[in-house]
Amino acid sequence: MTDLSRTDAVRRHDPAVRGFASDNYAGVHPEVLAAIALANGGHQVAYGEDDYTAHLQDVFRRHFGDQAEAYPVFNGTGANVVALQALLPRWGAVVCAESAHIHVDEGGAPEKMGGIKLLTVPTPDGKLTPELLDQQAWGYGDEHRAQPLAVSITQSTELGTLYTADEIRAITEHAHELGMLVHVDGSRLANAAASLGQPLRAFTTDVGVDVLSFGGTKNGLLFGEVVVVLNPERVRNIKYLRKTSMQLASKMRFVSVQFEALLSGDLYLRNAGHANAMASRLEAAVRDIDGVEIVRPVQANAVFAILPREVSERLQKRYRFYFWNEHTGEVRWMCSFDTTEADIDAFAAAIAEEMGRA
Ligand SMILES: Cc1ncc(COP(=O)(O)O)c(C=O)c1O
Question: Is the pTM of this model over 0.85?
Fold first, then answer.
């Protein structure tokens, strides 16, 4: 039998090794782990009727306004699929950027689990605009076309860019005029708040967003996301959709308490602000290296670059990160709450060294 009191008996990785592949490669922030331990012990009612989930409603109302309703779920894909189903009749479609996670990285879950048609639009920077929305918002009343009745945008985007509050307002106003509802995939919403220097509600509730997938996993949680209804008059029945979409946690107190740890103080901003700062530090350290091209604005915690493929491949033997586009050779470097300045400096030095050999 394994002796679990011996850490070397259970540890299968070197906790000092961090890479740049994804912000969800990171572990759990110690304050979140401590909160989970605090919520442990004793019995609490299952399926969200516990004291932690009840209190979480207040926490979310503080951030998003008195009308906000918080529905904890297991993961980001689940949050998106639950939220989008609530916006649409069975004949509905969602307009999103071609680069949207719901389109590219969810294995077809919105289509398969939600029966939702996605209508995609190419964008230069991962961001929709009212004009780009119009490319797909047509065919109303035509029974041959899935009806574009919702739009989904991502903040911060999959390309590491940000919408301003005004840009989101322009989208929501246009969408609402067309009879569409608006979802924000906020898997990295905290990174946006830290970078914009604005409260979370300033670029969600206050600019007309109807429903939000609020991320925690990429910002220091063990796991968990929250579907946040911002407009309960238009977005209903999440609790039924959450259950039938297999996103209802029986031991929900352990998801809820993590969000309390993140959002009741400033942990969400500390973590996200730090990750953003590390991305800026990385950009500053490598942008003048000959042959390294930073190809997108660094506005959150991601850096996208193009460098010679053989250099990237050699670097990948030293640090984990992904090719974003195999065709162009673009790579993505993600920073997380636990990326250190020393990690950045060592990685930048490795990039310079490998470029020197190119
Ligand atoms: C923008 C965005 N949305 C949603 C998700 C989905 O999260 P999960 O992997 O928890 O399903 C991710 C994860 O990478 C993401 O980057």
Answer: yes
